[in-house]
């Protein structure tokens, strides 16, 4: 078995950290909604970020955050065990994220701020980087070898 690429270990760790973040958000949504709104606002300069869509969820927020904790936990395990379905789901989520970011361009152009532009560029750069990384032949081959071994 070929060793796990460092980028895959990093993704597994990031997904594991996401579980904790989503559980924290779920607790805030239930017990201190004002703090949750403040955190979402901090992550969304000039509306470029998750605030609008998360605030529109209303009472469903705790369920959404709990479901995302489960999904990101499964993704963490999938990446750690080099399961190809996790790589494919991640590629699909990156593509969806890039498409949805295009819907934010109008609000970004209407009231551009340095923070909003920077956040958008960082999100695009990270998405493109991980898309490129997960599509590289050495990474694909490691996942395929694990699938063939199973």
Low-confidence segments: none
- Annotation, overall tally of beta strands: 0
Helix/strand class: mainly alpha
Rg value? 17 Å
- Helicity range: over 70%
Write the H/E string, N to C: HHHHHHHH
Strand content: under 5%
Tally the structural domains: 1
Shape: globular
List the helices and strands and how they pair.
Elements: H1 6-31, H2 33-42, H3 51-55, H4 61-80, H5 84-101, H6 105-110, H7 114-135, H8 137-149
Can I get a quick summary?
The chain is mostly helical and about 150 residues long. It contains 8 helices and no strands.
Describe it.
The protein is an all-alpha fold and 150 residues long. Helix content is 80%, strand content 0%. The chain has helices at residues 6-31, 33-42, 51-55, 61-80, 84-101, 105-110, 114-135, 137-149. α1 (6-31) crosses α2 (33-42), α4 packs across α5 (84-101) and α5 packs antiparallel against α7. The longest helix has 26 residues, at 6-31. It is globular. The protein starts with 5 loop residues before the first helix and ends with a helix.
What are the salient characteristics of this protein?
150 residues, mainly alpha, 8 helices
């Amino acid at each position: 078995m070929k060793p796990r690429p460092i980028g895959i270990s990093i993704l597994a760790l990031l997904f594991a950290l996401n579980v904790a973040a989503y559980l924290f958000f779920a607790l805030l949504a239930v017990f201190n909604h004002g703090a949750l709104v403040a955190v979402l606002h901090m992550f969304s300069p000039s509306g470029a970020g998750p605030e609008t869509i998360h605030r529109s969820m209303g009472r469903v927020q705790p369920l959404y955050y709990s479901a995302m904790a489960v999904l990101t936990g499964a993704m963490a395990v999938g990446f750690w065990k080099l399961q190809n379905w996790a790589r494919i789901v991640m590629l699909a989520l990156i593509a969806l994220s890039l498409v949805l970011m295009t819907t934010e361009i109008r609000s970004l152009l209407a009231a551009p701020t340095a923070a909003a532009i920077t956040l958008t560029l960082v999100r695009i750069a990270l998405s493109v980087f991980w898309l490129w990384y997960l599509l590289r032949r050495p990474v694909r081959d490691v996942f395929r070898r694990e699938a063939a071994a199973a």
